[in-house]
Design goal:
single chain, alpha/beta, Rossmann fold, seven-stranded parallel beta sheet, 10 helices, globular, EC 1.1.1.100, KR_dom, 3-oxoacyl-[acyl-carrier-protein] reductase (NADPH) activity
Length: 260
Amino acid sequence: MPVLNKVIIVTGGGTGVGRETSLAMARLGYHVIVNYSRSREEAEETAREISALGVRAFAVQADVADDAACRAIVAFAVKELGRVDVLVNCAGTTDFIPFQDLDAVTDETWQRLYQVNVVGAFHCARAVREPMLAVGGGTIVNVSSVAAQLGQGSSIPYCCTKAAVDNLTVSLARTLAPHIRVNGVAPGFIEGRWTQGGLGAKYDSIKQAYERTLPLGRVCQPQDIADGIVSLITGSKLVTGQTLTVDAGMMISGFQVKFD
């Protein structure tokens, strides 16, 4: 029987960091499930680009906040591609709310961000456990944020959900060992439409302020974060329960940008 290509599921895989990760893993020979919630055109275009690289790709719609939808993604991957080896939990959401405006933070904001950013990652990890064990093991990477440690970013609920993701990474790494490794990547400021859309007119000035003060002199591109994710998948097999910071030195710079 022919050797099957390994298979990766990337949630939020059609845009930004998810797109770059999907393409990078396809170049390494992985078949790719490109999950999306709303960005159908981008996900389908990403899947077409991956297919042109000589591997298989499917754009699959699902809201990771829905456990049944997550299980359906994994079942689809097993049915169409025969296995699941890697999961990258890249899907996420936020609201841009000034930290001082406590009254603007609603219960709905807390619930939606927690359900997508934290519970969604758990849903997907739980769904891939048995398929990964069936092929001898696998790797999970959760996309977190430096906001988890800095308490600085788009909103207080976002920072808190990313701190919870870091704890989820450790908890799952311990629980799923020794056959499934679980790690995280914590990006700093990422250039792109997601950040630009949230910051609006402040985007350029905040980006330039970071560029002037970051030790490495530039903000992150989606490809920079994808490189970190790929390193955790393809590098040492003795790394688990860790969150790799990819931030151009933001965490050591002592610089804080006000989002209000």
